[in-house]
Specification:
binds zinc ion; alpha/beta; 8-stranded parallel β-sheet; 21 strands; binds dihydropyrimidine-2,4(1H,3H)-dione
């Protein structure tokens, strides 16, 4: 068992930033020490973190590794995606196992375990997508919560004919979750109305990628979010977590519910904080396809991004995840040439979330503590992994990031580690740099070198949300 002493750094947590040395024994944190007082400990490894932050490893609770979607499959495997996550300072992902209508939930989960087991560089958990809500899948929810370490289920108000659940199905799943304590994660967009707008746009000859966004208006994200909140109330106060919030209208409904004390939570993703409908999805030619994700990028003429940063400050948005769902431009995004509705939806960002949100700290949009809270501590608490994950404290898993706040990270497809032939943030120059990453005490990344191994990452059995009020 390796003992490691991390010295000279400033430990940043959700509550503060204090010069602290960290003693790691084997896979866990053994002690937090007054700087310079660790000489008595015999250690095999010393990490000099002078001038750097020391943070809990990032927790990305929304990824889709090798997910079959849009007529193809997300291009990162669990192996490549978790390695890329490690490079970016994320040491835990929670991915989505998928059950489709007619499929058995437990068999679907077993398929996802088979994809991930023995392949991951960092630890991983699963949420379950319920693509078919019926008596059998409802019963399976109880089993997954009680025995499989899965305490959150994603439902879709979008994608009719693929993942969509109608309001009755949503209500029934929420009622079940109220009974077993699970959280319902909601993709809140009115998919039925969106499908009409998509057909109308295509019939009018509007086929470019920007129409992906124009046919998914913010009002329909707001409407669906409001409906999900109402259904959760009717279902007895089911914990509701709205995923990938991009629109002010949705955030407003979430903030209102929260002001009433409801267990309504939400995440946003870096793409919605920085990229826009006009400049990215609306890029000339077919270039915009690189930015097609759902919910879509929003207009820079409206205050969505500023509202999202504000929501992160006030905790109306509790988490930043990535919705990492990468598709290569060649062959995959190009399925949508001449028909925007056939562009596989998704961006690849698992490697860059910590840096992109840190840039928000540099720009004055977020405090240092809130960076750690939204990217590590709250996601761990929200999805039942705390204090094993999300905090550097005695007994916690030794998932640590040594982060140089004065370093520079330049994002490029030429240098990133995701299995993706382009980057949504190509050329972005960010202040801050991941220097060293430990996953359960093992150094997996150091100064740009990968030192981890496939299969080091273990399945994390999760409990119920620890963020309810
Ligand atoms: N949105 C995406 O952009 N990709 C995967 C699924 C989703 O809901
Ligand atoms: Zn979604
Ligand atoms: Zn998603």
């Amino acid at each position: 068992m390796t003992r490691t002493l991390v010295t000279g750094g400033t430990l940043v947590s959700a509550t503060g930033a204090t010069p602290t040395d960290v003693l790691v024994d084997g896979e866990t944190v053994a002690a937090l020490l007054v700087p310079g007082t660790g000489a008595e400990f015999a250690v095999e490894q010393r990490i000099d973190a002078t001038g750097c932050y020391v943070l809990p490893g990032g927790v990305d609770v929304h990824t889709h590794m090798e997910m079959p979607f849009g007529g193809t499959q997300a291009s990162d495997t669990f192996e490549s995606g978790t390695r890329a996550a490690a490079f970016g300072g994320t040491t835990t992902i929670v991915d989505f196992a998928v059950q489709r209508t007619g499929e058995d939930v437990e068999e679907s989960l077993a398929r996802w375990h088979a994809k991930a087991e023995g392949n991951c560089a960092v630890d991983y958990g699963f949420h379950m997508i319920l693509g078919g809500v019926d008596e059998t899948s409802l019963k399976a929810m109880d089993t997954l919560v009680a025995h499989e370490g899965i305490s959150s289920f994603k439902l879709f108000m979008a994608y009719p004919g693929v993942f969509h659940s109608d309001d009755g199905q949503i209500l029934r799943a929420m009622q079940r979750a109220t009974g077993n304590g699970a959280t319902i994660m909601m993709h809140a967009e009115n998919g039925t109305a969106i499908d009409v707008l998509v057909q109308q746009a295509l019939a009018a000859g509007n086929t470019d990628p920007v129409w992906h966004g124009l046919t998914r208006p913010a009002a329909l994200e707001g409407e669906a979010t409001n409906r999900a909140i109402a259904l959760a109330e009717v279902a007895g106060g089911t914990p509701l977590y709205v995923v990938h919030v991009s629109a002010s209208q949705a955030l407003e409904r979430i903030a209102h519910a929260r002001s009433q004390g409801r267990n309504v939570f939400a995440e946003t993703c870096p793409q919605y904080l920085y990229l826009t409908l006009e400049d990215h999805l609306g890029a000339p030619g077919f270039e915009g396809a690189k930015y097609a994700c759902s919910t879509p990028l929003r207009s820079k003429r409206e205050p969505h991004a500023a509202d999202l940063w504000k929501g992160l400050r006030t905790d109306d948005l509790a988490v930043v995840s990535t919705d990492h769902c990468p598709f290569c431009f060649n062959d995959q995004k190009q399925l949508g040439v001449g028909d925007f509705s056939k562009i596989p939806n998704g961006l690849g960002l698992v490697e860059h979330r910590m840096d992109l949100v840190h840039q928000g700290v540099v720009d004055g949009n977020l405090s240092l503590q809130r960076w750690v809270e939204t990217c590590a501590t709250t996601p761990a608490r929200m999805f039942g992994m705390y204090p094993r994950k999300g905090v550097v404290a005695p007994g916690s898993d030794a998932d640590l990031v040594v982060y140089d706040p004065h370093g520079t990270t330049t994002i490029s497809a030429a240098t990133h580690h995701m299995n993706l032939d382009h980057s949504a943030f190509e050329g972005a120059r960010l202040t801050g740099q991941v220097r060293t990453v430990l996953s359960r005490g093992r150094t997996v990344v150091d100064r740009g070198q990968y030192l981890g191994t496939k299969g080091h990452g273990r399945y994390v059995r999760r409990g119920l949300s620890q963020y309810l009020r």
